[in-house]
Every structure is written in structure tokens, then in C-alpha cells.
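tool=predict chain=A
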Amino acid sequence: MDPERAARQLAEGQHNVITYAQLADCGLKSDQVQQRLDAGVLLAMHRGVYRFAGAAPGRWTELAAAVLACGPGGCASHTSGGALFGLRGALASQPHVTIEGWDFRSRVRGVRIHRTLCLSDHDVTTRFGVRVTTVARTLLDMGAVVPAAVVESAAEDARNRGLVTIDDLEEVLGRLGERGRGGTAALRAYVRDHAGSAAGESELEVRFLRLLRDAGLPRPIVQHQVRIGGRTYRLDAAYPDRLIAFELDGISWHSGRARFSADRARSNALVTAGWRVLHFTWDQAHGTPEAVTAEVAQALALPFSGHQVS
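tool=predict ok
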């Protein structure tokens, strides 16, 4: 096969970027590479990493180039890894790449390089054609560069989408979560607070649960199912033993008359069955969090005289 054609085919599978070593493996000599650079056929992205002109850069082109620039053992990580998995709150202002060992001492312009002695095959996967740390390892590492609240939100999102389990998080903490390691505290706190519970489905649910935790209130059961009159209702959160239900109304929660009517009918059914239903909105959870936790605390303090409905 023609060397340039082989190189283009290889680049197509890695977001149209290719390394000098890969060009050589395809049969292009150094002077041929330089000729293509001079002609604008190849565009330099990093030292020894190029993009073929003619194809517009895609969403992951810059990250793929950054990973290749860090050597064959590099992989996207931290918030870059979170962005690849689409984790809630994982926004990377610059590519984050993790490499194993300390032999790679060069700097790569615009890339934040993290060096580690522990990056086994168990911690690496591929996403959209880019080498990346696994979801569990990504969440552990994210704690070193973002607030704990972002790690919690991303972990809830990952669990809800089936990308990771509490067991996965406990496993990575057991292997790599030694005290003093950056990121460990945030993920360890999340696992401690959420083991044995379902994941919140929305950012509002995560925010609500965090408010209750920080206020010292007991964690409710999320996505609790209640059967009333032959129908099953799923509650955003609940204290079943106290017959207290929480409906968390996000920014676009009432998306039409049918949805609005169904929500009202569900609330009426719950109230008729003896439940107390408390509604909280996105604006309340973010604007007046103290009022939210005060109302929950007051509801828990009320005398209970109902019968439990499961």
C-alpha cells in the first residue's frame, strides 16, 4: 500500500492525528515527512504529532493529539477522562494526560501531564478511539483537580448510567486510595455516604442529597417505589418509615399539560394514602438551601401517626 495512504488510514482511526514514529512505520522517510509539512499536507500539533490537513478537527482531535504527544503509554485522565465519558461536571480547560513512570521528562505545550507509578492495564480502556483511564480511576483522579462536590456529581451520574458500581469504586480505592494521595478523600467520602443506596438520577437530586448530608439529616431512599391502589409510583426520594416523600422539580420539570396533570394525580394519591409530599425546585436547592434543609428537618420532627405504605 502507498505509504501516505496507509498513514491516512491509520490517522482516521485516531481523530486524524498521527505521530512521527507511526509515519515512519507506514514507510514515510524523514525528508518525505518534511516535504508534506512544507506543502501544508501535514500540520504540526505537538512535537512529533501531526494532523492531516483537509479534514476539520473533531471534538476529540486536540485530546487525541495530546495523548499521542505524551508517548505510547499516555492516556487521557482526570477531567479529560471525565469529559470523554460525558460525566456530569467534568469540564477540562486543557487536556489532562497521565503517564506511568518518570522517564518522560519533556513538557507538552498546553497539556497538563500527571505522572504515576501505578497505571496498569486494569486502569486503562479506550473511549472514542482515545486511550483513557477507566471510569473508576478517572473519578479517583478527578478529586485531585476539582472540588469534592464535582466528584460526587460525576460519580452519581456514572452510577446512574451503569458506567461504574460502588464495588468498582471500592476496588480502585483499595488498590490506589492510600491516605495522602490526591483525590482519595473525595471519592472515599462518596463511597462511604452512598454504599448500599441507589444513585440520584439528576443533578438536582445530587444537590438535594448533599444538602441533607451537610445538614446532618438522614439520607432518604432515592427512587423509592410505592404501590397505591394498584398503581406503582416512583418517588425521587423518601423516608418510607415516616411517610415523607420528596418531589424534586428540575428546571424543565413541567414539560406539558399531560405531565403536569400526572404529577398532580400522583401527589394526590400519595396524600390520600397518608404520605406528606414536599416539593423542592432547582432554584430553592441553589438559592435558599438553608430553607430546604429547615423544612426537611421540621417534617422529620413532626409527630408520626400514619401507617406505612411500601
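The chain is about 40% helix and 20% strand. The mean pLDDT is 86.
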